[in-house]
């Protein structure tokens, strides 16, 4: 049987933080605020994966009140989600995701993001799609107040 999952996340842009998306440190004047490294793309992907398996969400597995997760690389958390899925008899079919940001340009960094995600999950890059869009200067992403991300995924029950 195949199972579909959906993930969505938002983080606020602020000064004095690194901008990390898909495990890539992107040179930019501001970064995303959060308890972990605030990698909004990876957070959306983890929620899609957990959702497809009906295993809750990242807030449940990695609470932002737990000092263990302070400043942690979200890619490391993705590894843990991948292991959890395996334990429950799931394999990742594919993941599609979109980063919603006015700036900066994401295209040069997408190949490395796909590589990082594939490696964390132990699957081929051809199963991972990452895209980016602006919202035409509309709303909070358009005003560069934050970055959002959405993801869907397909799990195969082993
Ligand atoms: Mg988040």
Provide keyphrases for this structure:
alpha+beta; 158 residues; 7 strands; two-stranded antiparallel ribbon
Strand order of the largest sheet: 4-1-7-5-6
Backbone structural class: alpha+beta
Taking all Cα atoms into account, the compactness measure Rg is 15 Å
Biggest sheet overview: 5 strands, mixed
Strand share of the residues?
25-35%
What is the approximate shape?
globular
Number of helices: 5
What is the mean pLDDT?
A: 97
**Separation, N- and C-terminal Cα atoms:** 8 Å
Bound molecules: magnesium ion
How many DSSP-defined strands? 7
Following the backbone from N to C, one meets helices and strands in this order, namely EEEEHHHEHEHE
Fraction in helix: 25-40%
**Unreliable parts:** none
Question: How would you characterize this protein structure?
Answer:
The chain is an alpha+beta fold and 158 residues long. It contains 5 helices and 7 strands; from the N terminus they run ββββαααβαβαβ. Helix content is 30%, strand content 32%. The strands form 2 sheets. A 5-stranded mixed beta sheet has the order 4-1-7-5-6. It has a two-stranded antiparallel ribbon with strand order 2-3. The longest helix is centred in the middle third of the chain and has 14 residues. It is globular and about 45 Å long. It binds magnesium ion. The site of magnesium ion (MG) has 5 residues, from strand 1 and helix 1.
Précis, in short:
By secondary structure, the protein is an alpha+beta fold. It has helices at residues 40-52, 58-61, 74-87, 110-121, 139-142; strands at residues 2-14, 19-21, 24-26, 31-32, 90-100, 128-133, 146-157.
């Amino acid at each position: 049987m195949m199972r579909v999952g959906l993930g969505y996340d938002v983080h606020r842009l602020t000064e004095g933080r690194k901008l990390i998306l898909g495990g890539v440190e992107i040179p930019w004047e501001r970064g995303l605020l959060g308890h972990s490294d605030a990698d909004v793309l990876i957070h959306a992907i983890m929620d899609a994966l957990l959702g497809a398996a009906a295993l809750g969400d990242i807030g449940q597995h990695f609470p932002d009140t737990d000092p263990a997760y302070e400043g942690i690389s979200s890619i490391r958390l993705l590894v843990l989600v991948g292991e959890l899925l395996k334990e429950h008899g799931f394999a990742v079919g594919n993941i599609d995701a979109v980063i919603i940001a006015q700036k900066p340009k994401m295209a040069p960094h997408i190949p490395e993001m796909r590589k990082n995600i594939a490696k964390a999950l132990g699957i081929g890059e051809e199963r991972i799609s990452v895209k980016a869009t602006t919202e035409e200067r509309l709303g909070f992403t358009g005003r560069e107040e934050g970055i959002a991300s959405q993801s869907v995924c397909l799990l195969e029950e082993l």
